[in-house]
Write a structure and sequence with these properties.
By secondary structure, this protein is mostly beta strands. The chain is about 5% helix and about 30% strand.
Length: about 200
């Protein structure tokens, strides 16, 4: 559990242990209005939230990640829940590839406020782009995002990505019992899938 501030991106919440719990076998992250002093002893935060970090517990270069989730509570307006894959940072390393954002970031799940479509986004160095004309995309059912270049140095580090179908995020997702989000990272390709609860394929 992370509880050391906002990681330099001007977030409005303070990460605290009490916002993370295991209930009936499920990981629960909560957000609440509060008034708490940050780790610098000066800044006052009006919101608290939870952050779970697997650093030092699990690392892989390629693989498949599966997430079963409901997110977020429809009454929790303005929040931005996410499930990210980040590069391993090695203090003192001479390689920039070990440090965000140069080392890349895969956002398997992202969404904000009252969105009803999940977003999946890549942040990379230059040279990685999404090509809508690529023959590998004929079966894609999502929509391309605003930008096709994944370069973190372009477009304010918005990255490139796709949005899922309706009912893949927010209140519509929860109303159908949640869903399954899957990402598969191979050497030259990253694929993502979304399935409604109860409609998961056998494989």
């Amino acid at each position: 559990v992370m509880h050391n501030g906002t990681h330099g991106d001007l977030e409005q919440q303070l990460y605290v242990d009490d916002a993370v719990a295991i209930e009936h076998g499920h990981l629960v992250l909560r957000t609440a209005r509060t008034s708490a002093t940050g780790p610098d002893g000066k800044r006052i935060y009006n919101f608290s939230s939870g952050w779970v970090d697997t650093k030092g517990k699990q690392e892989t270069q390629f693989g498949r990640w599966e997430i079963r989730a409901r997110l977020p509570d429809p009454e929790a307006r303005g929040i931005w829940p996410a499930h990210w894959l980040m590069p391993r940072f090695e203090r003192g390393s001479s390689s920039d590839w070990n440090c965000w954002p140069v080392g890349g970031e895969i956002d398997i799940i992202e969404g904000a406020n009252l969105n009803t479509k999940v977003a999946t986004t890549l942040h990379t160095t230059g040279g990685c782009d999404m090509n809508p004309l690529c023959p590998d995309f004929p079966d894609m059912t999502g929509d391309f995002g605003a930008f096709l270049t994944c370069d973190g140095a372009a477009n304010g580090n918005m990255g490139c990505g796709i949005t899922g179908p309706e009912h893949s995020y927010g209140e519509p997702l929860n109303a159908q019992g949640g869903g399954v989000f899957v990402a598969e990272g191979l050497e030259r390709q990253i694929s993502v899938w979304f399935c409604q609860h109860g409609q998961e394929p056998r494989d």
